[in-house]
Amino acid sequence: MPDMSQDQITRLRAIMARLRDPEHGCPWDVEQTFATIAPYTIEEAYEVADAIEREAWDELKGELGDLLFQSVFHARMAEEAGLFDFDDVARSIADKMVARHPHVFGDESNAKSAEQQTRDWEAVKAAERAAKARGGVLDDVALGLPALMRAEKLQKRAARVGFDWPEIGMVVDKIAEEARELAEARATLPQEKIEEELGDLLFVVANLARHLKVDPEVALRAANAKFVRRFHFIEAALAERGRTPDQSDLDEMDALWTEAKTQGL
After folding, report:
1. Are residues 17 and 93 both part of a single domain?
2. Residue 5: which pLDDT band, with cuts at 50, 70 and 90?
3. Residues 96 and 19 in one domain
4. Nearest to 120 by CA among 139, 103, 105, 107
5. pLDDT for 4
6. pLDDT of residue 160
């Protein structure tokens, strides 16, 4: 085992190297690739967000450790392939943070509002994208993002070059239009067309969130949590009556839902 006196990042890297050792390591860890580990990386990031949303501070340390382990895992595989190592990863993000904060690490004044600093940040990122010779405005919006988040980012990027509705009322009108088209598709068109129309509606809803300066992922997570709270109330109320939801009906459960709302759930 790695020396317990090592600093913990060094220790973690040594553990990862041992796990990946072809002869003495863990067979599961050895056979993994970037592609097979990527879903776990995404899952761990969501578990960090979940712990924060629940204010489960006792769990957050462990969840952050799990996410850090994902970076160490990917860096180890990259080192084995001769691509880069963990030091390169750390150096890359450190250099980026220094370059993107000239008002902290450089000569620029830090007497700026958060809004101005955000604009400056976007300008630096735009220059970095140009230096990478990306082909189009949307080309580096990551494909692996959750669909709702990616929709918002695509629209935000297009808006920077003027492709955007100038007022929020036009977005609301478009939502109504897409909803009508979905209703028509439901009645007359095949399933793949219904899916397309629903996608169009969700895409415009994401655009509305952007115009309202609301993170659609955050808003939907809050709505999910609210639904869970209220449905738990329904289950508890029915249990007091000696029944379960499948032994109830919509009218009774809807009345309990309204009661949950009146109680602020």
Report:
1. yes
2. very low
3. yes
4. 103
5. 47
6. 87
